[in-house]
Amino acid sequence: MKSPTLSVVVRAYRKAEDLAACLETLAFADHRVVVVAPDRADLTRCAKDLGALVVGENQDVLAGSADWVLSVGDDMRVSESLAKAISQIVADDAAETHEIPVRHHFYGRSIRFGWTEELAPVPKPCLQRTKGEGRRGDPLHEPVDRHLGHGISDFLKNIDVHTTIKARSLEDTSRPRRLEEAKRAVWRGFAKSILGAGGLREGRVGLVIAIGTALSPILTHLKVSEAGSVPENRS
Question: Which of 2, 17, 75, 233 is most buried (CB neighbours < 10 A)?
Fold first, then answer.
């Protein structure tokens, strides 16, 4: 009987060196597919040089010969222990979808506190069968490592990329966030990050994360508005 196969789909938005570091941790997969915007020739070249298949943003990346698909972003790295856990699921698991927890790295170390949904990966990392009814299994115990840089400049660049991705995902929805709602989300996000999510425990790094959390909704709104999808609320 043929063994189940695994494709990894990497959403590439950042620098070529980020994509290369991500792909190097995915050698255990049968296929590596990189989704790249048409204006990113550097990412296309990097992916092809490392033996990955490159597809456009609007292509159906799940339509292929693999039995399972692992979806990650180019800011993520898969450890050997996570790769082993994924391979075991692909080989003999009965469920069809598994969420994967995220371990954030910033300023060269693991950061546990301060993270909220505003800065969650888009899309969230998951492992799923390409065919089935989407029956959910338990989340994996091993996390995927998400690297957000070594300083404030790197973090701000990641906020820019992150809000661009979110803005694109909102452009086709029926109810994008309005300006007044985005303004309120700024203060809620800061408080939720620094207090609710325990960002204070991380010291100055927690403050940086809270500021990024606060900026995310208003930047996302402005980017959607700039694309002409959100009429401004002038009341």
Answer: 75
What are the phi and psi torsion angles at 221 (to 5°)?
-60, -45
DSSP state, 136? Answer: B
Distance in angstroms (rounded) separating the CA atoms of residues 101 and 35: 22
Instruction: Say what the pTM is.
Output: 0.85
Q: State both tokens at 17.
A: 């060196």
pLDDT digits (tens, 9 = 90+) for 99-136: 999 999 998 899 999 999 888 887 789 999 987 776 88
Rounded Cα distance, 84 and 25, in Å: 12
Q: Is 128 left (phi over 0), alpha (psi -120 to 50) or beta?
A: beta
Contact 199, 210 (CB under 8 A): yes
d(CA 200, CA 209): 10
User: Judging by beta carbons within 10 Å of its beta carbon (0-12, 13-18, 19+), is residue 133 exposed, middle or buried?
Assistant: exposed
pLDDT beyond 90 at 46 = yes
Structural contact between residues 87 and 67, judged by C-beta atoms closer than 8 angstroms: no
Q: 152-170 and 204-226 helices cross at what angle (nearest 10)?
A: 40
CA atoms within 13 A on the CB side of 185: 19
